[in-house]
Structures are given as structure tokens and as C-alpha cells.
Amino acid sequence: MIGKVKIGKSFAGICRYVLQEDKQAQVLDAEGVRTDSAAHMAQDFEFQQSQRPGLGNAVLHVALALPAEDAAGRSREEVAELLRQVGRAYMEKMAQENEQWANTQWSLTGHFDKGHPHAHLVVNRVDNDGKTIPDNFIGQESRRVCKEIEAEMGLTVAEQRGRAQVREVGPTHRQATAKTPSAQRDADWQRARHEVGNALKHTAPYSGNWDELQAKLTRHGVQVTPSTHQKKDGPQVYGVVFEKDGHRFKGSEVAKEYSASKLQQTFAQYKAQAPVLAQGANQAAEAYEAGRAKRQLEAAEQLNRQFQEQARQAQARDQARRDQEQEQARKVQEQARQVTKAPQRPQLPDRSRDGGIEM
To answer: CATH assignment of 2-158, given 3.40.50.150, 1.20.1540.10, 3.90.280.10, 3.30.930.30?
Structure first.
């Protein structure tokens, strides 16, 4: 697995790129941004970026690429879920080194238009508190995190694949220059042994028993066969054979540390460390969830304040309308009182009936 990091300036540009239809894009996960369109996603990123107007390079883009082997035999939905788990694991492990990674916006979008599945992780370097996430040694940290994820999830090792976007590798120099069938068989054997060694290097330290080791090595096309003999207290493993591409190797032929006895010591060490590792992972997950819960609570409180403000404004408008109506009614009543109080002119007698002579 490869995690290639780039720092950029334009959220609008990267959001348009990752959501292109011709890339068969699918949003796999997100935190703090809308995912219905590139425009909305970019607006949400940019709104938070505005808290640090002086930070030009606020876009942190990580391309997480998997080789075709890790997608073999999986449906698109299963590959999408694998990429989602990889993206989540990447964010959580980066947060273990810097908790700001658990307190910022991000989106994860899968592209399924090529032979090797990959996803684009877009992270806002301006966290939810308006602070800048540093990018010092970010490439080095990304490589370390990717190696840990490879080992823990049993993914194909990037170094073993040449780090050339994990494309299919060609023959080794020894295989290409072999002149005889014997030399060719020897070259094939050496290559298989080397690949088994690389696979064990990234899986054995993270396994607690033979079954766990086999589960991880299956992704690398390696079969494990422990040799046992029966003793009073049960079967005991006294040897191990690894098989890849039709070639078989004793554990000690791969390397001394991969003999049966050495591997069982490695299993014991991992079991002893497992509670500590699990506790660290749980603490990181709890911190991440606590941060998300805090953000959700703050968003709910802000929304509640908005509703209260809208209700207050509506009440103020209603009161103003009532005051206006009362004022108009008062004016009408006042006009009516003035009309009632106005003096009436006395009515003069009609002189036309008596000829104008007073009797």
C-alpha cells in the first residue's frame, strides 16, 4: 500500500478532481463536509479554512493506492469497504501522533477506473479550532503509518512491489539473465524466498499464533505448514515450511528469525504486547469518537442558538405588529372622541310659515 502525500492550495480544484464521474468516483467516508457535490464539499472546507486566511497551503491530499492482488476475488462493494477501513485506520494512526488529525474535516473518495483500486483522502490543515496542522515530516509519517496498516490488515507490502504505484513487477535480474533451466529454477527459488521473507517481515511481528500468521500471509500468496509431534501435554511444533509459487522453504532457509522456535517466541512477545497495543488503539478510537461527539454537540448547540434567535426575532416582529395595531386603534378612538365632543350649531326657527312676522 502506498500513501502519497501532497500539499496544495485549492479545495475547489481537488474536490472537482476526486469527484469526477469518469473516475467512477464513490465517496466512501467523510467528516465535517457535505458529500452531495464537489461544490458543497469545497465550500465546507473553505469555510473552515477562512479561520486562517494567512495559510495558503491548507489542502492535505493523500493518495492511498492498493495493488490488484488486494482486490482480487472481491466485489466492488468489498473493495470499497476495504478502502474505507484503510482510510479510517490512516486517520486514526495519524491522530495518535498528532491529535489535531482527530479534530478536523476530511473526505475519502474511491476511484475504480484503474486496475489497482485507490482512494483520495482530502484533509483540512485548519482544524475545527482554527489551528494549523503542521506538515513537518508528513511524508515520513505517512510511510510509517502505511507499513503498520499493511501489517495489521495483511495487505501487500509496497516495498516488496517496488513502490511504482504497486504495478505488476517484472522478472528479477537473475531471472532475466538465466541461461539454463537449472539457473532459471534457482532464480525463481531465490525470488520466491525473498518474497516470503518480505511477507514475514511485515506479518510475523503482528501475529499471536500460527493461524493468525497464516491469515495474514494468505494475502501474499504464502502457505504455512507447521510440523508437529505428539507429546504428553499435547502436540508440539518443531518445524515450519513456507510455500509460494510452488517453492517450499524451511523457516530457517528464509532467515534464522523465521524458524519455528523463533516464530513461537515472536508470537509470545506479540501476545504480551497486545493488551498495550489494544489499549492504545482503543484510546485513540475513544479520543476520535469523543472529538466527534464534541463537534456534534457544538453543532447542535449552535443550531439551537440559531433557532432561539429566529424565535426571538419572530416574537419581536409579532410584538411590533401588535404595537402598531394598538397605536392605529388608539388613533381611531381618539378621532371618534373628538367628533363626539365637537359643539353643534343651534337650529334657527323656520320663518317661512308665518310670513316672517313674529306673533
So the answer is: 3.30.930.30
